UniProtKB/TrEMBL annotation:
One of its GO terms (molecular function) is ATP binding. This is Adenosine kinase. PROSITE patterns: PFKB_KINASES_2. It comes from Tigriopus californicus. Its cofactor is Mg(2+).
Length: 370
């Protein structure tokens, strides 16, 4: 029997962390036209920042895989390994030519037990994010490069449809969907046609939720989605952008977010189960809110109603044990989905998500515990 797969679609990014002194930082910010101490997108090839780092700083630079879905896939592979679940985690995205940083990224990801299926754009660099770090301040310069060029032809070329025969779970991040909406629609449709495949979508991050085009397509796709995840800020931004859409599922999501005040009564629910269950589509919604309770409810996208509201308390992590919150959300999803592969209840999946996110709070970045 062939092994089961889980497919993660996302931006393949290599994180480069370059320690600098205050003096050096000032100089580099000026030389490469950067804004200090914030995140920004730049053509790091054209302004030669990438060449500068690899030629003069290669010894002091540390490398890590970046990207939300990439980090979730690494956590998923780690959980499968630790708990001996025979499921292969596959990351799907786009890379540039096979230069040193591409090789570095691929080998780091493979070492974490993730299989890679990548379309190529040989005229573009592999996506990367250069972090100039000076004590607690960091100037982040991202270049998505090849990562933002995934399209419909790549689905064909990578044989994604035949992979789906062995797949029970497909995951995609918002950062990926926004630049590849055609592929997003095609993939979710393929999954929806196969009842045993669950499609999980992560809204991340806030800036994509400000794009009307993105929000519109995600709203239409709710009727084919099995799990919708995001944090509170992302949901609030998403719903604000969606407010002009006049879509009943958006109204239902707003009710769910208000804490279930308008959740239908048990009576109404049994009416529904009598008549419509066969034809209705249910999407599980999960919202994290930092250290506040995780909220979840079911959205019947056919009747545009929410029900079965859950609020799950997050155990406190002592402040001195928290290294940083980088990747907490991405690891929450990985934990949730892992428990789902084990057919656990929604409550148990959320608890597993919390457990996984707490593991990385105690690590710096999204490095995995030994
Ligand atoms: C996808 O991108 C490749 C490379 O740029 C291009 O050759 C192909 O025509 C594109 N396909 C679609 C459907 O846009
Ligand atoms: C999310 O957390 C904030 C506190 O940071 C709280 O005020 C808010 O009520 C929470 N939202 C929900 C819907 O629980
Ligand atoms: C949601 O995630 C973003 C990006 O990781 C973060 O900046 C924001 O504080 C998070 N919001 C909540 C409510 O957790
Ligand atoms: C979960 O349930 C599915 C469908 O009933 C089954 O095929 C699968 O083997 C189960 N997985 C585990 C780990 O029990
Ligand atoms: C992914 O994990 C790496 C560390 O392994 C971290 O540096 C990076 O910020 C994480 N990316 C995201 C989007 O959280």
């Amino acid at each position: 029997m062939s092994r089961q797969l889980t497919l993660f679609f996302g931006n393949a990014l290599l994180d480069l962390t370059v320690p600098v002194t205050a003096e050096e930082e000032k100089h580099l910010v000026q030389r490469f036209g950067l804004v200090p101490h914030v995140g920004q997108e730049k053509d790091t090839i054209q302004n030669e920042l990438m060449a500068f780092v690899s030629e003069t700083r290669s010894d002091s630079t540390s490398y890590a895989p970046g990207g939300c879905a990439l980090n979730s896939s690494r956590m998923m592979a780690w959980l499968c390994q630790r708990e001996a679940l025979d499921v292969t985690t596959v990351f799907i995205g786009t890379r540039g030519a096979m230069d040193r940083s591409t090789q570095k990224l691929l080998s780091l990801v493979q070492n974490d037990g993730v299989d890679i299926l990548m379309a190529e754009r040989l005229n573009l660099p592999t996506g990367h994010c250069i972090n100039l770090v000076q004590s607690v301040e960091r100037t982040m310069v991202a270049n998505l490069g090849a990562a933002s060029h995934f399209n419909l032809s790549d689905l064909q070329e990578l044989g994604v449809e035949s992979k789906l025969k062995m797949t029970q779970l497909v995951y995609m991040e918002g950062f990926f969907a926004i630049h590849s909406l055609d592929a997003f629609k095609a993939i979710i449709h393929l999954c929806c046609q196969r009842a045993r495949i669950k499609f999980c979508f992560n809204l991340c991050g806030e800036y994509v939720c400000r794009s009307f085009e993105f929000v519109k397509e995600v709203t239409y796709a709710l009727s084919e989605m099995d799990i919708l995840y995001g944090n509170m800020s992302e949901f609030e931004t998403f719903l604000k952008t969606a407010s002009t859409l006049d879509n009943p599922n958006i109204e239902a999501l707003k009710c769910g977010l208000k804490g279930g005040q308008y959740i239908q009564s048990a009576e109404e629910r049994s009416d529904r189960t009598k008549g419509r269950l066969e034809s209705s589509h249910i999407c599980t919604v999960i919202i994290t809110n930092g250290s506040n309770p995780v909220i979840s409810f079911l959205l019947d996208t056919t009747a545009s109603r929410v029900f079965e509201f859950l609020s799950v308390r997050v155990p406190k992590v002592p402040r001195n044990e928290i290294k940083d919150t980088v990747g907490a959300g991405d690891c929450f999803v990985a934990g949730y989905l892992f428990a789902m592969l084990l057919n656990r209840s929604r409550l148990q999946c959320i608890e597993k998500g919390i457990e996984a996110s707490h593991l990385v709070l105690k690590q710096s970045g999204t490095s995995l515990p030994n």
